[in-house]
Amino acid sequence: MRTLGPIALIFHAIFVAFIMAPLLMVIAVSFTDKGYLSLPTDGLSLRWFKAILDNPDFIEAFGMSVWLALFSATVAVIISVPAALALARHKFPGRELISAFLLSPLMIPHLVLGVAFLQFYSRIGLGGSFYGLAAAHIILVTPYALRLALASATGMSTDAEHAAMTLGASKFTVFRRITVPLILPGIAGGWILSFITSFDELTMSVFVASPSTQTLPVKMYNHITQTIDPLIASVSTVLIVLTFLLMLILDRFYGLDKIFIGKG
Amino acid sequence: MSFLKFDSLRKEFGDFVAVHDMSLSVERGEFISLLGPSGCGKTTTLQMVAGLLSPTSGKVILDGKDITNTPPNKRGLGIVFQSYALFPHMSALDNVAFGLEMRGVGKAERLERAHNALNQVKLGQFVDRFPKDMSGGQRQRVALARALVIEPPVLLLDEPLSNLDAKLREDMRIELRLLQQDLGVTTILVTHDQEEALSMSDRIVVMQQGDVSQVAAPLDLYERPLNSFVSDFVGKTNILQGKVTDKNVVSVNQIAVSVNTEAHVVGADVALSIRPEKFTMSSDNAGLPVRVKASIFMGASWLYSVESDMGELLVTQPNTGSAGFARGDSAYLAWEEGALTVFGGVQA
Amino acid sequence: MSTEKTPNTPYLLTAPGVLFFAALLGAPMIMTLLLSLHSYDFNLGVQSDWTFGNYAEVIGDPYFQKIFGRTFGLALWVTVICVAIGVPEAYVLSRLNPRWRSIFLLIVLGPLLISVVVRTLGWALFFGGSGILSMVSQALGFGDEPVSLMFTFTGMTIALVHVLVPFMVISVWASLQKIDPQSEDAAYSLGASKMTVLRRITLPQAMPGILSGSIIVFALTASAFATPAIIGGRRLKVVATAAYDEYLSTLNWPLGAAIAVLLLIANIAIIVSYNKLVERRFAKVFE
Ligand SMILES: Nc1ncnc2c1ncn2[C@@H]1O[C@H](COP(=O)(O)OP(=O)(O)OP(=O)(O)O)[C@@H](O)[C@H]1O
Ligand SMILES: [Mg+2]
């Protein structure tokens, strides 16, 4: 009774084609030998992949994005874990308010965050700095880290911690030896999701990033709005391949749907 | 001087009184059960002893020392949680060794002692297993070994057998009791299973809505319940409403039943309790005539539901190897006067 | 439980986050709100007066009305299409055998991890005058005129559906996962047909996922920037690209701030009222 009919399978095939089409298109175009965007009808060429190496801008932007994502994901997790424990374990006046506040960036369009930070930083003189950009990203990704940490802290019974306590462990020992290992999957998932979100973010960063702190999406966006050449396709292809590899690794060790559910 | 004492222990959650000024003295080496229906405050009481909940008022005294405000990690009591609360990221051996590590026992010694403790609960070959790869009964034993290895003055057990299947539960009752007697460790068991309490304990504390209903040894509790709540909760019983019509006579639905009524005045409303196995049921024309409504074979016994002028009654009869009564049969019930217990008031 | 005596603990544990957010989220948001209440002079810059003029301008000007209307219409269309194709796809995924399922889950959800810029670029390559679409239609003999979806509403809709449909799939997928398969078997055993089971048993249980997926897609479309900017360009502005232009091209920050504040208010109002509606509906279902 649970098998799929032919109509369902045809629909599925079309859907999958729709999802893959633009990505395959980008990959195909990146192998062109022409100087403009076109399909490689006269043979494949690695010309535009070599061109990446001649454009240190993109490599620098990639490095900036990785560093920024590492930094903001890590800080977001450090902020979120204690907060998640407090919110999951205690009832206290203001609990709802604090949780809504820490999750509120999810409700704010990135554009609004972008203009808010732009004005704020230019006022306090942090405009264009790395730490300004990083702070904005931390705000942006903390809700993701918090949500996953919260999910695993809420689901976890306190019995094991109580057991450790009655066996003589101090509060700190209980935290280090029992609590952290038990919510580690949530922490790791939150970190990964934060990293990816930060790495891909464009809309807010467009406002906050300066030429010296351009992230890869910002660099690519600016490039597209100025010139359209196959270089952007080859950079995109590299990104697609890297993301695909990351996905395989994550799926292997973590289960991809767990991370995506945190994103939705 | 008793070993462990609760002194007017009380716990309130907001306006709700979960445990109502409970006092109890436990002797060294004694096995005590806290028995009662769900939500009556058993776990709350146990957690106050463990130090995981702080009492609203009252004291816990262990071996002459007031430990009411001692944090749980300084009490040194052994606890087995209902969920077992094993550390899922540690092997059985590491679980058991954890408490010793907290006490600063050196590595070699603590592994050896943890090993011995696991041997004691017959898990010697499973030391490297992780909790997720063990059966319910094995996990339960690891939890027990983990609690016992620190040689606690008191062992606290919160429904330790309730997650096990019926057969294993019975085996574990015996094993647990033998182990407790061998070690001589003072034990408090929380359970809502009256059979478990009756079969394992030296004394049973029956609780009802945060109050202690009765404290007694198993046989006393079963044979001489203080009120109809206890008699109904501990074992099966028939409760009949009646009125004292004369000295040592109670009328139930116009039928005169002779029973010792010395504690009650003539004219008082009372409840009579009689256990199903105290009846003798036969087809000899003697005693209370009844009609069999349902007949259930239970292996060692027969359980009947019968209709009589006194109302509906539950009856159990030992299986003697021949067929029992069938539905629709007529029969007669007899009982000894001492089998009846009288309680005042309309309690049931 | 054991911490009931230390009421300060939760405040200490949340303090780093709360303080960080207050300084770096609260302050900028309040400053943006204040900025939107100042007027702007093209020669003198931001003035120090207090006025609702920017809001009056955004709300009263047909140019901005059109942009807000277009954004709303776009969000509605994208949401409807995402429901129409995302829900069946989630169902199909849940019915595939486990091996294929994990492969297709990766394919369908994977794009979420790839930058929106890259995905939109792919559609721009399709849509452009010299793109595939033109080649195909020319090959099929639909005329020699290059067909272009670049700078069209349809083009934006298609690209945004592609960008956002994985959110719908994951959301519905999550609620399908929670369905006890035996509830469907039970319906079959009671004589229900496949269609009936789908309609009466599966779909109602997937409803929470569909509803939450819809609100996510709607809100993300309404505030989308990259895709409308690349596909719609200057010709077909939406709220986000209009605010961007006020900020970075026209430099009229107060007006841009007013647009941003209106976008935020609309976003929160829609999410909150939708949630209220959904809760009420489900309160009925599960009573
Ligand atoms: N933290 C709490 N806040 C409020 N009420 C509580 C709390 N903990 C327990 N209670 C209430 O106190 C009463 C006693 O709970 P307790 O857990 O001690 O019951 P129990 O006898 O162990 O029941 P069970 O057999 O179901 O485990 C219950 O009515 C319960 O709802
Ligand atoms: Mg309990």
Any chance you could write out the topology, listing elements then pairs?
The complex is a heterotrimer of chains A (264), B (348) and C (287).
Chain A: H1 6-30, H2 47-54, H3 56-89, H4 95-103, H5 110-124, H6 130-155, H7 159-166, H8 171-200, H9 203-208, H10 216-226, H11 230-253, H12 256-263
Chain B: E1 4-13, E2 16-26, E3 31-35, H1 42-50, E4 57-62, E5 65-66, H2 72-75, E6 78-80, H3 92-102, H4 107-120, H5 136-148, E7 154-158, H6 166-183, E8 186-191, H7 194-200, E9 203-208, E10 211-216, H8 218-223, H9 228-233, E11 238-246, E12 249-252, E13 255-258, E14 269-274, E15 280-282, E16 288-297, E17 301-308, E18 311-318, E19 330-334, E20 341-344
Helix pairs in contact in B: 3-4, 3-5, 4-5
Chain C: H1 9-35, E1 40-41, E2 45-46, H2 53-60, H3 62-95, H4 98-109, H5 116-127, H6 132-139, H7 153-178, H8 181-189, H9 194-222, H10 226-232, H11 239-250, H12 253-285
Antiparallel strand pairs in C: 1-2
The complex binds adenosine-5'-triphosphate and magnesium ion (MG).
Explain what this protein looks like in three dimensions.
The complex is a heterotrimer of chains A (264), B (348) and C (287). Chain A has a single domain (6-260), classed as MetI-like (MetI-like fold, Orthogonal Bundle). Chain A is 77% helix and 0% strand. Chain A contains twelve helices and no strands. The model of chain A has no long low-confidence stretch (mean pLDDT 89). Chain B is α+β, with helices and mostly antiparallel strands. Chain B contains nine helices and 20 strands. In chain B, the strands form four sheets. Chain B has a six-stranded mixed beta sheet with strand order 6-7-8-3-9-10, with helices on both faces. In chain B, strands 13-12-11-14-20 form a five-stranded antiparallel beta sheet. In chain B, helix 3 (92-102) packs across helix 4 (107-120), helix 3 (92-102) runs parallel beside helix 5 (136-148) and helix 4 packs across helix 5 (136-148). The relative contact order of chain B is 0.11. Chain C is mainly α and 287 residues long. Chain C is built from twelve helices and two strands, in the order H-E-E-H-H-H-H-H-H-H-H-H-H-H. Chain C has helices spanning 9-35, 53-60, 62-95, 98-109, 116-127, 132-139, 153-178, 181-189, 194-222, 226-232, 239-250, 253-285, and strands at residues 40-41, 45-46. The longest helix of chain C has 34 residues, at 62-95. The model of chain C is unreliable at 1-5 (pLDDT under 50). The complex binds adenosine-5'-triphosphate (ATP) and magnesium ion. Magnesium ion (MG) binds at residues 42-43 of chain B. Chain C: It comes from Pacificibacter maritimus.
